[in-house]
Amino acid sequence: MAPPCPAFPTQKLPALAQIGPDGRVRKTEDGRRIDLLRDCELFGLLQYECVVPRPELVGSPVQCWPVQRWFRRCQDKKGSFTAETTTWEGTALATTPGELGTAEGDGVQHLGAVSHGAAKNAKSV
Amino acid sequence: MPYLMPILRGLLRSSRLRFTTKSTPPSPSSAAPPPSKLSPPIPPNNETPRNAPSWLGHPFRVALHTLKFVAFAHLIWEYGISMSPASGPSMLPTFEVLGEWLLVSKLHRFGRGITVGDVVAYNIPINEEVGVKRVLGLPGDYVLMDTPGEGGGVMGMGMGMGMGTGTGTGTGGGNMIQVPQGHCWIVGDNLVASRDSRYFGPVPLALIRGKVIAAVRPWSEIKWIINPLRNADQPTET
Predict the structure, then answer these.
(1) 3 state DSSP class of B67
(2) Is there a catalytic annotation at residue B133?
């Protein structure tokens, strides 16, 4: 079994992303603390919500709607790590400095608009 | 050991036949024929024991070759590459519900070389079956425990693990965890029909059996599984 994992709300991500799994503060190569917006590249992948609209019919088509998930890949002294920012991108939180961080810029606000549901293009499989 | 005598006698006879010449049969008084008069062996009655495959020469040799083949196949299957059927709706639309055969690279067992976005085969921690899911978090990463829902909110699915107490609704909501050391976070591509880390929590890397590298629809097509995680600056594949 996995060890106890304390959950935290998304709002605390910018602050807690600066703490490594060993409990030590993460720092960049030049000694600064990790800022999700400044130091981390944005990545995305699609997952889906698939339903069978007519399950009573044999061979009924499956309809899938994409769900966009966002990730930030950051680099610290010890290597890279990833933080999922699906519910964080594009919110006011993305421009609010964390407790330990100093978030800058507003370059990703537009991404939140397409983070989920905006591209509800049905895909039949 | 009287039963060995006929065998030895037969062996001696066959060795004599190989080195006798037709033109100069050996006489009891003469010495061995000169080497220049040696000719290729001619078995009596045109019987050619060499026509039989060499590996069938001895039953023990057959058994030995079979054993070697089985051991080699086991080595490849366990530590190289394997293929097995898969079924279920949890990885739609990446994999069909039925009729998929998955090619699994065992070089990535125990999570070796796995990155976020890869599809892995793993031992399901709550039963004896093998599942296939996508890795969304590795040790030290931060992942959303819940399912992203309409409008950027979440649908609570990971609340039953005693790991969180928040409601996680609305934009910017949801609960997250940091994946502990030695574990990963896996989620099926079909979010509404997948039992994964949202249900049973982080999965030990030791349960990772390998990385799914291709889906084979028997004897018709092969679809290579490519990590879909793309930089946001690049066009997204759909």
Answers:
(1) helix
(2) yes
Report CA dihedral (B230, B183, B168, A80) to the nearest 10 degrees: -40
3-state secondary structure of B235: coil
Tokens standing for residue B99: 């009729």
B159 interaction partners in chain A (CB closer than 8 Å): none
**Residue of chain A nearest B189, judged by CA positions:** A47
pLDDT band at B130 (very low <50, low <70, confident <90, very high): very high
CA dist., res. B15 & res. B49, Å (int):
13
- Give residue B185's identity as a one-letter amino acid code: W
Identify whether B90 is a catalytic site residue. Answer: yes
A87–B150: do the CB atoms touch at under 8 Å?
A: no
Residue A37 contacts residue A85 (beta carbons within 8 Å): no
Question: Quick check: helix, strand or coil at residue A40?
Answer: strand
Structure letter (DSSP) for residue B50: G
Q: In 3-state terms, what secondary structure has residue A103?
A: coil
> Which among A50, A83, A87 is the nearest to B172, CB-wise?
A87
Coil/strand/helix, residue B196: coil
Exposure of B182 by Cβ count < 10 A (0-12 exposed, 13-18 middle, 19+ buried)?
middle
pLDDT number for residue A34: 85
DSSP state of A77: T
Structure tokens at B94: 């990446």
Q: Do B229 and A125 touch (CB under 8 A)?
A: no
pTM > 0.80:
no
CA-based end-to-end distance of chain B: 78
Q: Which residues contact B205 (CB under 8 A, 6 or more apart)?
A: B110, B111, B114, B139, B182, B183, B184
**What's the ipTM?**
0.74
